[in-house]
Amino acid sequence: MAKHFKRIETALIHEGEPEPRINGAVSMPIFQSSTFEYTGESSYHEVRYLRLNNSPNHIVLHKKLAALEGAESALVTASGMAAITTTLLTLLASGDHLLAQNCLYGGTHDFLTKDFASFGIAYDFIDAYDPASWESKLQPNTRALYVETMTNPLLEVADLKAVVEFAEKHDLVTMIDNTFASPINFRPAEWGFDISMHSCTKYLNGHTDIVAGAVIGRADLIEKIKHKLDHLGGTLDPHAAFLLHRGMKTLALRVRYQNESALRIAQFLERHPAVSRVNYPGLESHPAHTRARELFDGFSGMLSFELKGGADASQNLIRNVRLPIVAPSLGGVETLITRPSTTSHAGLSAEDRERLGISDGLIRLSVGIEATEDIIEDFEQALDAL
Ligand SMILES: *Cc1c(COP(=O)(O)O)cnc(C)c1O
After folding, report:
1. Spatial distance between the Cα atoms of 224 and 209, rounded to a whole number of angstroms
2. Are 19 and 2 in contact (CB under 8 A)?
3. Of 309, 324, 327, 306, whose CA–CA distance to 367 is shortest?
4. Were both Cys, which of 162, 211, 240, 264 would link to 131 (CB 3.0–4.6 Å)?
5. Known active-site residue 202
6. Hey, which of 202, 208, 236, 300 would you mutate to test ligand 1's pocket, going by the most ligand atoms within 8 Å of its Cβ?
């Protein structure tokens, strides 16, 4: 009988592991096999073939991921975008309408604004800070509501309880991109969300060496999404599955340290005279701090900030820092620094960025697991040299 573990640290290590162990192996082996001997499978989706997302490396991850968020079921995918697009194309068909938060991950934003029309799917953006305004965007064909746990790069936190209540009232499926929080800080199923999605490229793997994704949630929906993924083909390769599995074991240790480190760095920056604004949900100055405290167990390793000297000062700061690596992406063990106006949000017009509150000088930091003091000392010298 499968063992279950109540606490997330233990679930990360033991949940879903094969019983008995395969030839006694303590660590899950890689099944580098595209096909498996027939043992009487009766439907196409059960045939044991790598694209059909059911190799032993997939199954162990599905069980573990579902357990981490206290959800019924889970599915791993080739990337975060494979998780998001496959889920959207499963839950929405031609003629349907989606309500989505107005500040989405760039790839998701592009998929809605550039690709939805060719599938005959309509959408409207909503201001997730203003639940009273959502009803006016509702249409008879609205099927789902899509939000992110924390937005990129401003770390805004929508009224997630209102999202679930509104969806229940209007019979909508709720989808949440939980990448920034990770299951350590937020578990959407516990708050009534139907589907949570991750770019496992980020915190879940944590080591900046693969791309991978996951969909976690209601078993009836995950089964439909699996069938769509079987057709669209965005399966996770066994070697990447092995690396994700290995990376996940230290998720609790990494994320808790990153939570703590990011809070101390945010507090340091907030006190520094050259800094004009810091966006971090763990700060009391954050507009949704009280809500974040209620919803989250931690505030993540992500923060963003602006300098009094504007875009030029930001450019100089990024040149002055020695420790953070100037690179997009996030959630790994290395501290990464970027200017969203030149990277993740470069595709938006200057007016759109302005409207979303993303100034040209805004700097985003993904805090790694280096010594917090080393990062703070580095920012201190870089800010003093401005
Ligand atoms: C990176 C990211 C994605 C996309 O994930 P990939 O693994 O790069 O496909 C989606 N949502 C968020 C919030 C992300 O940070």
Report:
1. 29
2. yes
3. 324
4. 162
5. yes
6. 202
- The CATH number of domain 251-384 is 3.90.1150.10: yes
**Tokens 């954050």 -> residue:** 286
Catalytic residue among 63, 64, 202, 364: 202
> Is residue 263 in contact with ligand 1, taking CB distance under 6 Å?
no
Tell me where in the chain the CATH 3.40.640.10 domain(s) lie: 8-248
Tell me the two tokens of residue 96: 């349907």
**Does 107 sit in the ligand 1 pocket, CB within 6 Å?**
yes
What order of strands is seen across the sheet that includes strand 122-126? 73-77, 213-217, 195-199, 173-177, 142-148, 97-101, 122-126
- Please provide the DSSP assignment of 245-272 as one string: HHHHTTHHHHHHHHHHHHHHHHHHHHH-
Query: For residue 294, what are the CA distances in angstroms to 161, 168, 329?
Result: 10, 21, 27
Known catalytic residue at 130:
no
Residue 2 has pLDDT above 90, yes or no: no
Q: Pairing relation of β-strands 302-307 and 325-326?
A: unpaired
Active-site residue flag, 51: yes
Does the beta carbon of 79 sit less than 6 angstroms from any atom of ligand 1?
yes
Q: Quick check: helix, strand or coil at residue 182? A: helix
Distance 39 CA to ligand 1 centre (A): 37
**pLDDT tens readout for residues 42-81:** 999 999 999 999 999 999 999 999 999 999 999 999 999 9
C-alpha of residue 2 to centroid of ligand 1, in Å: 32
Portions of the chain given CATH number 3.90.1150.10: 251-384
Is 331:203 a contact under the CB 8 Å cutoff?
yes
Query: Which residues partner with 97 through β-bridges?
Result: 122, 142
Q: Which tens digit of pLDDT belongs to each residue from 193-223? A: 999 999 999 999 999 999 999 999 999 999 9
CATH of 8-248, one of 3.30.870.10, 3.90.1150.10, 3.40.640.10, 1.10.1270.20: 3.40.640.10
Q: For the chain, what is the radius of gyration of the CA atoms?
A: 21
Kindly report the protein residue whose alpha carbon is nearest to atom 4 of ligand 1: 80
| Helix (H) and strand (E) counts in the chain | 13, 12
Mean pLDDT, residues 245-250 taken together: 98
